[in-house]
Amino acid sequence: MTVDSFGVDMTAHDQARHQILDAAAEVFQLRGFDRATIDDIAEEIGATKGRVYYYYRSKFDIYLAVYEEGMKNVRRVVEPFSTGTGTGAERLTAMSEAHLVNLMQNLGYHNAIHQGVPGQRFAALKERQREVLATINGLREDYEAMYRQVLEDGITDSSIREGDRRLMTRVLLSSLNSTAMWFRPRGGQDEAEIRTLALQIVSQVIGGIENR
């Protein structure tokens, strides 16, 4: 247990916060940001909306937190493969498989990411929201840059064909992320099945840029 200087159990605090984010990701996926309510999120965790407001000030703050958590989580599982052994194409394949497995196991978070940040169309964002939004935009840019660097490595070692690096990276990530539009987990579907599906998708996507 981790306790801060005010005697707050930070482990329990973080667990409660993540419980709200998990619930919110599911609610945003099912209802979309505009139709989702704090009551929906509270009902998902079997609590009152007062408990949700204890941790987050608004629905938009929750959405930003879901988005940020989703980006950090996928980066956490994908990044180790970017600096592993193998050719650029091999590393790009491993990264893409990890990305897809994470997507299929955390579909609500990825759907929130792909909906985009609704607050970007609002002129009057609060300062704290602007700061989070800047962080999120930085996470997205850094994630794309990581893929682009490995793709560059593949072009250098001739495992990936020549092409516009930025365009190839964006097409690759867009192709992977489009899986969120149609994939729905089946009851009893284990991780091995998810990985097999991820490999099949990645094989088709990487095949379009791989040198053979």
Q: What do you see in this structure?
A:
- By secondary structure, this protein is mainly α.
- It has a single domain (59-207), classed as Orthogonal Bundle (Tetracycline Repressor, domain 2).
- It is 74% helix and 0% strand.
- The protein has helices spanning 10-35, 38-45, 49-55, 59-82, 88-105, 107-115, 127-156, 165-177, 179-182, 191-207.
- α1 (10-35) packs across α2 (38-45), α2 packs across α3 and α4 packs antiparallel against α5 (88-105).
- The longest helix has 30 residues, at 127-156.
- GO terms for molecular function: DNA-binding transcription factor activity; transcription cis-regulatory region binding.
- InterPro entries: Homeodomain-like_sf, HTH-type_TetR-like_transc_reg, HTH_TetR, KstR2_TetR_C, Tet_transcr_reg_TetR-rel_C_sf.
- Residues 14-74 form the HTH tetR-type domain.
- Keywords: DNA-binding, Transcription, Transcription regulation.
Give a concise summary.
This protein has 212 residues and is an all-alpha fold. 74% of the residues lie in helices and 0% in strands. The protein has one domain: Tetracycline Repressor, domain 2 (Orthogonal Bundle), CATH 1.10.357.10.
